[in-house]
């Protein structure tokens, strides 16, 4: 099995920045992404990276940037110009190779991001 360990959440004022990290205990991860869930709302896609291709939710385009290390085990979500509506628990999701040749999708435990106005 693979563990995804997230870090970097916290509390900031509107307009501030945070960088989330997600480290996988895997051989490598072909896809890594972030989802978020605000209180009382469904979990939604934020951003993902597959090879060198990135994707973003419309609500974060131009403000968030996702990247992945060369080993494809850690990804980063740089979040700039944060807004109160970005407040949520952010979850890392990754599709990874582990063991001899097993492939599966995993979720992290989540990290809280709170943006105050």
Percent helix = under 10%
Give the low-pLDDT segments: none
By DSSP (H or I, 4+ residues per run), the number of helices equals 0
Shape: elongated
The average pLDDT is: 96
Structural class: mainly beta
Q: What about the largest sheet? A: 7 strands, mixed
Strand elements, count = 11
How does this structure look, described?
- With 117 residues, the chain is mostly beta strands.
- The protein is 0% helix and 60% strand.
- The chain has strands spanning 4-7, 10-13, 18-24, 28-37, 44-50, 53-56, 64-68, 74-79, 88-98, 102-107, 111-116.
- The strands form two sheets. Strands 2, 4, 5, 6, 9, 10 and 11 form a seven-stranded mixed beta sheet that branches. A four-stranded antiparallel beta sheet has the order 1-3-8-7, with no helix packed on it.
- Strand 4 (28-37) and strand 5 form a beta hairpin.
Annotation keywords:
single chain, 117 residues, mainly beta, 7-stranded mixed β-sheet, 4-stranded antiparallel β-sheet, elongated
Secondary structure: elements and pairs:
Layout: E1 4-7, E2 10-13, E3 18-24, E4 28-37, E5 44-50, E6 53-56, E7 64-68, E8 74-79, E9 88-98, E10 102-107, E11 111-116
Parallel strand pairs: 2-11
Antiparallel strand pairs: 1-3, 3-8, 4-5, 4-9, 5-6, 7-8, 9-10, 9-11
